Amino acid sequence: MAIEWLLYPALGAVAGVLAGLLGVGGGLVLVGALAWLLPLQGVPVDDAMHAALATSLASILVTGASSARSHHRRGSVLWPTVAWLLPGLLLGAWLGSGLATRLDGDALRWGVSGFCLLMAVQLMADWPRARVRPAEAPAPRGPALSGAGGIIGAVSALVGIGGGSMTVPLLIWRGVAPVRAVGTSSACGVGIALASAAGYATHAPAQAMPAWSLGYVYLPAALGIGIASVLAAPTGVRIAHRVQPRTLRRIFAGFLLLMAWVVAASG
What is the three-state SS of 188-242? Predict the structure, then answer.
């Protein structure tokens, strides 16, 4: 219980700040940490990576909602864009979580680590470059966003994130200001987390997890992380509105490089 009452809320505070600052729910931080911690709670080693992904996504449901609310109050969530992305995000996240339950833990671990490295390189290379467009131009819309949402949702479910590392660059490329891209991504992350966590909860094998679990979701960890993240997310939002866009991208890239090492070492 000491771990549940102390470490999980501490992880939640970190996740909350990252959610507000970077448009992610801290999922990559949580996956790495939970892969180490959950076996101590009775989670079988072979199921630890699946449980880490599922529990991370369940906590992001709360974290993302808190972050999105804070960004909405500052006018930085493009809700028409969210509406176009959401159908693909929900379907992709559900299907991705189902696929993840059929992969072994090592495949998931190296997939997460490789994803972190790929996204860090993409950010440091500043690609794709943002399109220049008038500030008063309408928010991005169209079926292409729904298709992109399907890919983002599926990959997010497989690596345990709220999709910010893909949604933010996509929106910046479409000409959205970085801080609005972050806010919009936070809202999208709620849909990804809901569909993914539901998939991990229903696709888990019977009796794969200890008591107080819902499928692959370990509820004490998800609740401890989620509650603390709600308190911390507004701090990240305040920082995001004061940081230069280029600096925000560098912070994001450094964060992803660190998480690539943490996740790989968890094996």
Answer: HHHHHHHHHHHHHHHHCCCCCCCCCEECCEEHHHHHHHHHHHHHHHHHHHHHHCC
